[in-house]
Structures are given as structure tokens and as C-alpha cells.
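Homework help board

Subject: predicted structure for assignment chain

Our instructor gave us this sequence and asked us to write out the predicted structure in C-alpha cell form, then describe one feature. I got the C-alpha cells but I'm not sure how to describe them. Can anyone check?
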Amino acid sequence: MDIKIFKNKWFLLTIMAITWGSSFILIKKSLPVFSPFQIGAFRVGLSGLILSFIGIPALRKMPMRDALWVAAAGFFGNFLPMFLFPIAQTQVSSSLAGIINSLEPIFVLVLGFMLFGIRSKFSQVIGAVIGFVGAATLLFFSESNTADSQIAYTLLMVLASACYAISALIIKLKLQEVKSIHVSSSVFTIWMVPSAFILVFSGFFTMDFNQEALKALGFMSLLSIFGTAIGIVLFYKLIQDTSAVFASTVSYLLPVVAVIWGVLDGEKFNAWYLLGASLILVGIYLIREKKKKPQITPR
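My C-alpha cell output:
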């Protein structure tokens, strides 16, 4: 395969959609054995171990200002959401998690204006409104045990999507001059340490790793290596090569992959899911970048 294909933004976007879209079913398969905190900490910890040989030297050479922004980007994009999604998936399906995650580009638009003064076109504002209506539809009509848990656990996924958006904006606006591989490796190197403490205090290393646990550990390892470490490296590269909005349009494809996995695993996909997902994708379509890409500059 021509190595140039790895520089093609659409190819990278497709690979990201497959790896990230598969993350939700892998979380689901890990939850019967491991707690949400163990899953999140394992993802960050293993990714940190894999990338620390790049991250440690990069951090040593990095100015303090950049290191602080890297830590902030990592907290919102590579640490907190890793726990929020597994917690939410104890009550909601992997299909719904994949759909809710597609809110990210809408949050990039809204939070980009609120936090950094990035101006948007009227059509993009309308797209954001439609997208949030779609999210509200999923919020109130998703399947769950009670109305309270339905709202609370779905809101955790909405919060996680907002965190991803904040991280994408920080990388594009504050870390543009730092190589993408240095950013991605550094964030995991930084947050690997607290993740290790969480694994220790959660009893992960004293568990009885029987056949079922080893199988779940295999799912977590796939999740960590492909869905986290490799996926984030590609995502950060795509943000710096294009923009936060373009990179976050992986959300066009990600829900499709997540829903396919969910249906194959026997999950129900009702009409409200279809309506909510359709509204979110219409919203993303309206806020997408045109061929003539606008400049993104802080106000």
C-alpha cells in the first residue's frame, strides 16, 4: 500500500471511525468483569506505557506553557471521558453511546464560540440547534430502567462529548506548533500516573483472572491499543492537518459502526434512536466546513 494514503485525510477519517465506532461494543464486553473505573484507567494506563517512550522525551523538551495545555487537552480528551462512557454504558446500550458521541462537532462549534470567540455562520448555528434537538430526543426516549437513570446516564455521555470538543479546540488553537505525535504521546504519559493509582486502589492487580476475566482483558487491550492509543494519534494528526471541526466529523461514520456492532450483538434499535441520530447528523451536516475553509482565530 502506498504510504501516501496515510496522509489522506479521508482515509484517516475512515480508519478512526472504524476504531472508535468499535470502542463502545468493546466497553460493553469488558463491563461484566471490570468496573467502569478499571476500564478507563486501563485504557489510559496501557496507552501511556505504549507511548511513553515518545512522551517522556517530548515532555522534557516541551516549554512549561505547552506542557500545561497538553495536560489540559489530555484531561478533557483522554482521561475524563474514558470513565464517563463506561459508567454510562452500565445503563445504556453501546449503539446509543455511539450516537451520542456524534455530538462532538456540534460542541466544537458552540464551545469554540463560548470559550475562544470562534464565529460561526447562521446555517451552522441552525445546525447546532437541530443537533441538540436530536440529542434531547435520545435523552428522553432512550431505553433505561427509570426516567432518572435515563437522563443521568445519557447526560454523562453528552458531557463526555463536550469534553472531547474542548480537547480538540485546545489542540488546534494552543498546540498547533507541537507535533501531533508529541501531543498524543505526552497526554497519555501525563495521565498514565493517576490511572495507575486508580488501578491499584480498585483492586485490579489482585483480581482472579479466570477464563472469563482473561477474555474481557483481551477486549480491554484491543480497546486500549486501537480505540485509544492509535485512534488518538490519528485524531490529533488530523486536527493539526485540517481543523477541529473537520476531525470531529468522524461523527458522521462513527455511529454507523457502533450501531452495526450493537445490532449484531442483539441490541434493539428503535425509531427514537433513528430520529435522534438523523437530527444529529443533519446538524453536523449544516455545521460542516465548506471547501473554502474559514479561518479559526481567537477573538
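Reply (TA_rk): Your C-alpha cells look well-formed. For the description, you could write something like this. The two ends are 43 Å apart (CA to CA). That's the kind of observation they're looking for.
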